């Protein structure tokens, strides 16, 4: 199936590993030009080469620190200048720390707020003018299955990413008439470095062995295994494509059935 992504220009944030990396590779495989953003673009040159090998029309890496809002708009403008425009924005962030509510003072909330919700607000302010000028765009926020079903010890992630879902729904109404579609993907447990870190935290917090800690994360997942990042990337490519022209304002769970959502 031709997704119609050849010639489209995409920005993927927090793209150096995990679901961000998988998203970038999936878009590249469909012939899009892809910019990957992270704190250390030099460290992403290997990924840039992979994107080109996968089929990207062009691939670049740009410096972007999601905690420094004043730097985000210039970085987006750099991407648009180097790629000749910007059609697709995949808003991914690093995962906030895990732990019980009382472990996190106000400063921890502020840091996570800056790096998640407010970073997405700043980036949308920057990307939307490029999309509006062409009356076409796709914004895909990477959130969490925790916006649909509460996860123990994930209070920062679940709270702040639920706010991103609210942002997405508001933007979807405001910009649909300009051909800009806005959706969220809500991943459950995927086989990523982030998941390894969460399993390690569970192991340390609960005094469990590794296998038992993994079971904590999988016991409510009907398919019985961690998701593959490439499966997540495939859904990103679909939502970014011409084939998703009637889909906006939704939060789609990719969670192996964990949320029992409908």
Automatic annotation (TrEMBL):
It comes from the Bacteria. SUPFAM superfamilies: NAD(P)-binding Rossmann-fold domains. Pfam families: adh_short_C2 (PF13561). Signal peptide: none annotated. Belongs to the short-chain dehydrogenases/reductases (SDR) family. This is 3-oxoacyl-[acyl-carrier-protein] reductase FabG. The gene is fabG_3.
């Amino acid at each position: 199936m031709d997704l119609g992504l050849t010639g489209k220009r995409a920005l993927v944030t927090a793209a150096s590993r995990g679901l961000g990396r998988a998203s970038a590779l999936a878009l590249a495989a469909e012939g899009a030009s892809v910019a990957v953003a992270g704190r250390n673009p030099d460290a992403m040159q290997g990924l840039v080469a992979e994107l080109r090998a996968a089929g990207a029309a062009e691939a670049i890496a740009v410096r972007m620190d999601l905690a420094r809002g004043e730097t985000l708009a210039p970085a987006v403008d750099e991407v648009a200048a180097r790629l000749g425009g910007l059609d697709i924005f995949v808003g991914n962030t690093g995962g906030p720390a895990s732990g019980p509510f009382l472990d996190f003072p106000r400063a921890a909330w502020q840091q996570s707020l800056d790096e998640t919700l407010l970073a997405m607000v700043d980036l949308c302010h920057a990307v939307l003018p490029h999309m509006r000028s062409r009356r076409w765009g796709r914004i895909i926020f990477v959130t969490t299955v925790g916006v649909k079903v509460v996860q123990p010890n994930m209070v920062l992630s679940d709270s702040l990413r639920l706010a991103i879902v609210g942002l997405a729904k508001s933007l979807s109404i405001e910009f649909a008439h300009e051909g800009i579609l806005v959706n969220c993907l809500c991943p459950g447990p995927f086989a990523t470095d982030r998941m390894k870190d969460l399993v390690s935290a569970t192991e340390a917090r609960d005094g469990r062995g590794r296998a038992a800690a993994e079971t904590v994360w999988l016991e409510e997942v009907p398919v019985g295994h961690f998701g593959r990042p490439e499966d997540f990337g495939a859904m990103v490519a679909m939502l970014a494509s011409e084939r998703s022209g009637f889909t906006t304002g939704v939060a789609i769970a990719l969670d192996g059935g964990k949320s029992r959502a409908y």
